[in-house]
Design a protein that fits this description.
The complex is a heterodimer. Chain A is about 75% helix and about 0% strand. Chain A is an all-alpha fold. Chain A has a single domain (about 40-280), classed as MetI-like fold, CATH 1.10.3720.10. In chain A, helix 7 crosses helix 9. Chain A is globular. Chain A starts with a helix and ends with a helix. Chain B is an all-alpha fold. Chain B has two domains: about 5-80, no CATH class; about 85-300, MetI-like (MetI-like fold, Orthogonal Bundle), CATH 1.10.3720.10. Chain B is about 75% helix and about 0% strand. Chain B contains 14 helices and no strands. Chain B starts with a helix and ends with a helix. Classes of the chains: A mainly alpha, B mainly alpha. Chains A and B meet through helix 1, helix 3, helix 4, helix 5 and helix 6 of A and helix 1, helix 2, helix 5, helix 6 and helix 7 of B.
Amino acid sequence: MLLIPALAVVAVVAIYPLGLTVWQSFTNEQFLAGLQPVEFVGLENYRNLIDDPFWWDSVWLTLKFTVITVSFELVLGMIIALVVNSGFKGRGVMRAVMLVPWAIPTVVAAQMWRWMYNDIFGVFNDFLIRIHVIDKGVAWIAEPSTALASVCVVDIWKTTPFVALLLLAGLQVIPTELYEAADVDGVSKWHQFWRITFPLLLPAILVTVIFRTLDALRVFDVFYVFFGSRPDTQTMSIFAQNTIVTIGDVGYGAATSVAIFLIISLFVVIYTTVLRVER
Amino acid sequence: MTVAAEAERAERVKALAARRRAERRSFKYLARRIPFYLLIGVIFVFALFPFYWALRSAFMPTDELFLTPVKYIPTDPTLDHFRDVLSNDNFQYALVNSTIVAASVTLLALAIGSLAAYALGRFNFRGRTATLYLMLSMTIFPQIAILGALYTSINKLGLYNTLGSLIFSYMIFTLPFTIWVLTSFIRALPKDLEEAAYIDGATPLQVFYRVMLPLLAPALVTTGLLAFIAAWNEFLFALSFTATPEKRTVPVAIVNVTGETGSAFQTPWGQIMAATVIVTLPLIVMTLVLQRRILAGLTAGAVKG
């Protein structure tokens, strides 16, 4: 009885729309209704999607973004977690500071960085000029060769502290006696990390990687703020949103949404299999 | 382990501790700590510099903002940008809208979520595990997968460009999360008080209101705050389901201050930065005040998953 409201809400906001999306993906529904009756078109949308080079560009871009950001966030987050866990004065302050980038809206973070990246008045270019790395400002966001890197930096900045906090929570559960014993036996810090910390932390690491990957695969906000719907820098989510809302091609957009859903599910299946093998 | 070996080991422990104490006072030890503190310094700067830069740009007069070489510290701070952005109608709408949406979403998610969590955390019934897994899988559900269906449904219901459409659609990412975290909190609570209440003849609903809710208060604050932040920061739905400045939320408004292709001279960067400072400040204060609680909630949500 107590569950009824919750289940009703979930059914209305998630399960029904998901079903409807699947149905729409087999139709030629257009948003500007009245132009043509909605017809069942079978797999046509999916066939078009497979032949759409822009769609595949967006898939590769999203995958590249995911691999780059998740690996950087994991390595940097690990270093930060180890530093904070080693205990020093001001570690409480540090923990608090780390929560701040996580708490602010992604859109706000993106705007802050967009201004820092500004080709003429941005601090980023100014600093690089001062230390003579470049001699005139670079338009990091507009330049196709640096566009992806510039977004990755923002995501890494915003999310690494959060990754570090999750790993830190895992680190604090490891009993200190293990390290004391290793010290007594003269095991080097490097070996201690690989022999004690890493294996015991592995579950926390895996969970963190899963959450981060799923998050990165649906990235939308930073790319939208940086590039709008510029064709060479669309992620899967931007491609779908653009198709549905801006173009109004609901049927095709729905097929895209289903494809994204399947890609993300594929990752979930891979990860859960890995997790099960680990255990 | 033989007695001799054990004694030897104890010797080594003592020696190690003594060496550590001596080391800590030595100059060499300090020198070795320097790279460590440098690293900490780098982390601090990396984490905080963008905030400093937003503050610096928010307080710097417009003509100084657009100067090269760039000035790192405002010599002549001004509140102009804050005045401009706060007197901007679109930004005022956005602040009010975001507050309404985030507050309603939080209250709804907590009300519905705590009831469900009570059921899932305390009672055994068929389909309980299935429901829990459903909720867990919903927390990683990609919102984009239902964008098209929500978009057409919202239009058909005449909810397009209303705050209601946002409150309604935000349930999808706040409710499952709330249920999941609250359930794990409830499971950790001792049952004694409830059992005592049942013995005194209370109904499940009475137990929920009189016994459970007071015990849950700290957890409700935590999850409520997380739901509030998630709703306050949401962008994709807000962008897709609203059209006019009177209905926009803060993230959409902050993006729209900028012309899509405006050059640096036309983009009012001072105002944008003032807006980011205004929006960020309450979040920072809330996070710092409640940081321990937030951490507990996040790790309950993530690690136990």
